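hiii, so i know i said id send this last week but things got crazy w the move. better late than never?? heres the sequnce for the chain we talked about at the cafe, plus the structure i predicted for it. fair warning i was half asleep when i ran it
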Amino acid sequence: MLKEREQRQSLRVSHPIVARYYPFRDVAIGWRPMQMVNLSAGGVRFLGSERLESGEEVALEVPMSGASTPIRVRGRIV
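okay and structure toks below
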């Protein structure tokens, strides 16, 4: 069995956090819960309640321990 070579350029760190995501294609429903699986300097892997398509734009909202407001970022599904 051949192992697939890792192509990521950044180290991924397991970091389970309950957060929220917002797909811009469906603004009527708004924010949805998600479970972050891991993150790196180049991105984040998360599990949500629906399948997102490659190229789709989303916003993520991540609570930070000790912070009064969560971090909000915008990204694209790859």
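btw Confidence is low (pLDDT under 50) at residues 1-5. thought thatd interest u
miss u guys!!
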